[in-house]
Design goal:
The chain is an alpha/beta fold and 416 residues long. Helices cover 51% and strands 8% of the residues. α1 runs parallel beside α18. The radius of gyration is 22 Å and the shape is globular.
Length: 416
């Protein structure tokens, strides 16, 4: 067996067998009831597919949204899988998911697929999906301002170790004008203009919810215009509230930068876009707050190189994932190759960002394959330079990329 053939075998084996920590999703544990989305109709009405189908469907937006979910799913299936070949990554993902669950994709039988999902018992089914993917755990996105989610936490939710929490800050940081009155209604003494006890009370709010959730990190999605320092409520909240609490509680702040909300409001959740952001804001945060740790992903392809360069300068910056519109094989391949070339193995190459339970099946199946291809290339480059790597070293590296680097950056053990 040639050295190149042996590298291919070792890498593929390690990539397929290494367990995964999915560090950012929009999934929920079964204890959240209907907030956990799953099943074929949820898969077909995922906003990627809705946006794609609406390019073909000649019906008014409001007419589409008046349909119930099942009928929306029927339309998407008919449009993207019957009337046209399912060429997009989102469409292929549905096929990979169905096939992974043992269903006959060639039959194109939507009724058969629905019947399969209707037979599932949720608790057992979640375990089946996790086993199929090789997931140790996923990290949720948890928002105490969400009227559906908040009561579940306040009711004394029994934590599921497969689903870990992240405290989402969008409502607080990006909409202070509406967040402040809500905080007051919950008996936090805050003022719209930040007077008095406002910073201390926001810090108390954040600390309480980190403890309540057992949050691994705090997170916020930000527009391309995000800047720091910034003479705004958001700038003050980050500097005077979020970062002090993050340092005290020893949790990172995750910044997801570059989303343009409501580019086409008629598409609802599918109507958000992407824009190029200023990496200097990240550099300023890392430099001014060396005792804080920052997990950062950016939505624009054009930001990826500059972000990697920034990570070379700041060890408190961990680059992670191919987020949202970057989550396609061609861009994952390009981005992962560049990150490995600039940062070695000190990155987190991917997260699923799944909103529907079964999406972890295809996102990690496709992600493993693409990341594995890049790793084969890189280990082959080492072999060509006369360096040899053992199977143990390859498995060590891949274990870091698929979860170990995240837990090391947090400074904690997984604790499954």
């Amino acid at each position: 067996m040639s050295a190149d053939t042996e590298i291919v075998r070792l890498v593929r084996s390690a990539v397929e067998e290494t367990r995964i920590t999915d560090i950012h999703t929009h999934l929920y544990s079964p204890g959240f009831g209907g907030l956990l989305l799953w099943g074929i109709d949820e898969l077909l009405t995922y906003h990627y597919l809705v946006a794609e189908a609406r390019r073909w469907l000649d019906i008014p937006d409001d007419e589409f949204w008046r349909l119930d979910k099942r009928k929306q799913a029927d339309l998407v299936w008919q449009t993207l899988f019957v009337e046209h070949s399912p060429l997009s990554e989102a469409c292929r993902g549905v096929l990979t998911t169905l096939r992974g669950l043992g269903l006959d994709v060639a039959s194109r039988n939507l009724a058969e697929y629905r019947a399969f999902f209707e037979r599932q018992e949720l608790e057992e089914y979640v375990g089946r999906v996790f086993d199929l993917v090789g997931l140790d755990c996923t990290v949720m996105t948890n928002d105490p301002f969400d009227d559906l989610e908040r009561p579940v936490w306040l009711s004394g939710l029994k934590r599921d170790p497969r689903f870990r929490a992240a405290l989402r800050l969008d409502a607080l940081l990006n909409a202070w004008e509406t967040a402040a009155p809500r905080l007051r209604s919950w008996r936090f003494e805050v003022a719209d203009d930040f007077r008095g006890r406002t910073p201390a009370e926001v810090r108390r709010f954040l600390s309480e919810w980190i403890e309540k959730m057992g949050a691994l990190y705090m997170a916020v999605s930000l527009p391309p215009t995000f800047a720091f320092p910034e003479a705004s409520a958001r700038g003050r909240l980050i500097e005077e509230c979020v970062l002090p609490v993050a340092a005290k509680k020893a949790v990172p702040l995750a910044l997801m930068v570059g989303v343009k909300r409501g580019v086409n409001p008629a598409l609802r959740l599918a109507g958000d876009g992407a824009g190029r952001a200023d990496v200097e804001a990240v550099e300023n945060l890392c430099r001014r707050f060396p005792d804080n740790r920052f997990l950062v992903t950016m939505l624009s392809r054009e930001n990826q190189h500059e972000l990697c360069v920034a990570a070379r300068k700041f060890r408190n910056l961990m680059v992670f994932g191919c987020w949202w519109f970057l989550n396609s094989p061609s861009l994952i391949r390009e981005t992962t190759r560049m990150r490995l070339e600039l940062l070695g193995g000190s990155v987190i190459p991917q997260h699923s960002d799944s909103r529907v339970l079964e999406q972890v099946i295809y996102k990690w199946a496709h992600g493993r394959t693409t990341i594995g291809e890049v790793l084969i290339e890189k280990y082959s480059d080492l072999a060509a330079a006369g360096w040899t790597v053992s199977e143990g070293e390859i498995r060590r590296d891949i274990a870091g990329l698929f979860g170990g680097n995240f837990w090391s950056f947090l400074g904690s053990a997984p604790g499954f």
